[in-house]
Amino acid sequence: MSKGSPKPATVSHRLEYAATRVAVFGLRLLGWRGASWVGGLLGRLVYRPIGIRAGVVERQIAAAFPEFAPARVIEVARRSYDSLGRTSIETAVLPGTTAQAVRDRVERVVGWELVEAAMAEGNGLLIVTGHLGNWEFGGAYFAARGIPIDVVARGMANPIFDAYLTRTRRQIGMEVIHDKDAVRRTPRSLRENRAIAFVSDHDALGLASTFVPFFGRPAKTPRGPAVFALRFAAPTVFVAVVRQPSGRYAILIEPVEVQHTGDRESDIDAIVLRYTQILERLVREYPEQYFWQHRRWRRQPPDTPPHLREP
Asked: Cys-Cys link to 203, which of 105, 220, 271, 292 (CB 3.0-4.6 A)?
């Protein structure tokens, strides 16, 4: 096997893929709202009684919101599992949905004029987002509005499932760029006047990152979007897709300021800080829709004070 080739699929991979396809087929029979309800139920069961990562979630919420009473921490944790379950199932049944149906699931859009202005300039658009609400739906909505869009995604350990996810994203109208190819592919996408989306709030080994405050604690944050924004002078926006009480979505779009001072490293760090601050503000507004199941402060600088280390 040549270096960089995908690993061969195992029997376990094939069984996992088959089970996923059967489950998705059954969920589609329930319709969008029915499938979302099942996702919420499964998410709540994962929290209690199963308890997967419940302690991590509760500690992180309590650290981010020290003003929350214990009962409020538990309520936000429960609802975050509900949100994650809904997002997972809603994403699974999204392929095959018509562009009109995708648009109909959006209750309101704030800042779409920023997208239109960027595409009119012809230099492409950099989209930064975070694991808030239904981040996958955002790409589908942009595609449904006729915006050519690429999404940067991590490859999955299961090669069959990874190929399936790539196919389904393409069915929705998105092109997938694996993170290892982002440096090579992003310039091409911008030259072709495409939008390209990055998820900005999970650190990963091998990705260029910087430490910026997130809820007051240093968090290792990918700097790729900031590097591209500075290098190519492409318009940059932050996009959040948050679920509303109606079950439909609000899509919130706002600019990320990119300043050139001549100090490249400082400029990159400043951009990373700006889009992290936008995300934090939105998480404060919708704490129950954030992906607290990820250990956001797992990697920190060695000189981090004890009271600011991972909770």
From this structure: 220
State the Cα–Cα distance between residues 230 and 271, nearest whole angstrom: 9
Q: H helices then E strands: how many in the chain?
A: 11, 9
Full DSSP string of 14-48: HHHHHHHHHHHHHHHHTHHHHHHHHHHHHHHHIII
Q: What is the pLDDT of residues 225-258, one digit of tens each?
A: 999 999 998 999 999 999 999 999 999 999 999 9
Q: What is the pTM of this model?
A: 0.90
Determine contact, residues 107/241, Cβ cutoff 8 Å. no
- Comparing C-alpha atoms, which of 105, 107, 93, 195 is closest to residue 143? 195
* Residue ranges of domains in the chain: 11-308
Q: Do residues 241 and 249 make contact, with C-beta atoms less than 8 angstroms apart? A: yes
**Helix or strand holding residue 243 (H, E):** strand 236-243
